[in-house]
Amino acid sequence: DQQRDGDFLSHDERYARTDEFLDVVKTFWASAGPFDHEGTYFKIRNSLAALKPFGPSGIPIYFGGSSEAALEVGAKHADVYAMWGESLEEVRETIARVRAAAAKWNRADRIRFSLSLRPVIGRTEAEAWSRAEYIYETAKSLSAPAPAIVHPAQSVGMQRLRAAAGRGAVLDKRLWTKLASLPNARGSTTGLVGTGEQIAEALLEYHKLGITAFLIRGFDPIQDALAYGREILPRVREAVAQRDEAFGVVTAEVA
After folding, report:
1. Which residues pair with 254 in a beta bridge?
2. Considering its fold, how many domains does the chain have in total?
3. Is residue 89 part of a domain?
4. Pairing of β 80-84 and β 112-117
């Protein structure tokens, strides 16, 4: 995909370029006067941003990636490190790795974590799993006609999701990985399947590990958004608020 757009840098070089780009952006935000920059990927002379962020810390940076190169850059720059939906053990491991890398920049306690999932909700658990199977079969029928465009994924995140799907269609109690097994599956394809109460409980297990922001999206945008707003968000927010009061932890964001 990068090469289709004329970008022939290697995987790790792209992250090195991102690292330098973010260094330059932060200098734009913070510099009181014109500055120069001469690096591997960017050269700037006598530049000064006319507009700057309102807050002294700049604009929050959300960053994601599962490779070592991504982890190192994200640990240095990210305010929020974003992850795709993996098992509880894998999320626990990634959080520990990112915090360890961020410690080199004295940021281990400053970085927060986001998790992206696609909940499949039903009035009963059986209804939810039936709907999940319908979604899978529909996606399978749509992806089958175009095998010729499938290329080996460079994305370590995509590789991890496909490996998870290889371990089973369901991990933990209700992490649904089946869509990630499709040939053309890309991006955030894992989800949680169950009733609103069951999905909320699963989200809270991730919150206990250190996830403080959830990005949830569905397959039927309007109806799923309404269902999430009725059945999931209130339960998660109430449970997190109770936990905040008891332990003083950061309230979860659910979007």
Report:
1. 214
2. 2
3. no
4. parallel
**Residue 215 belongs to some domain of the structure:** yes
The amino acid occupying position 143 is S
Read off the pLDDT of residues 189-236 as tens digits, 9 standing for 90 and up.
Answer: 899 999 999 999 999 999 999 999 999 999 999 999 999 999 999 999
Nearest-angstrom CA–CA distance, 182 and 220: 20
Angle between helices 221-231 and 233-247 (to 10 degrees): 40
Going by DSSP bridges, is the β-strand pair 175-176/170-171 parallel, antiparallel, or unpaired? antiparallel
**Residue given tokens 């397959």 in the structure block:** 219
Domain limits for position 19: 1-59
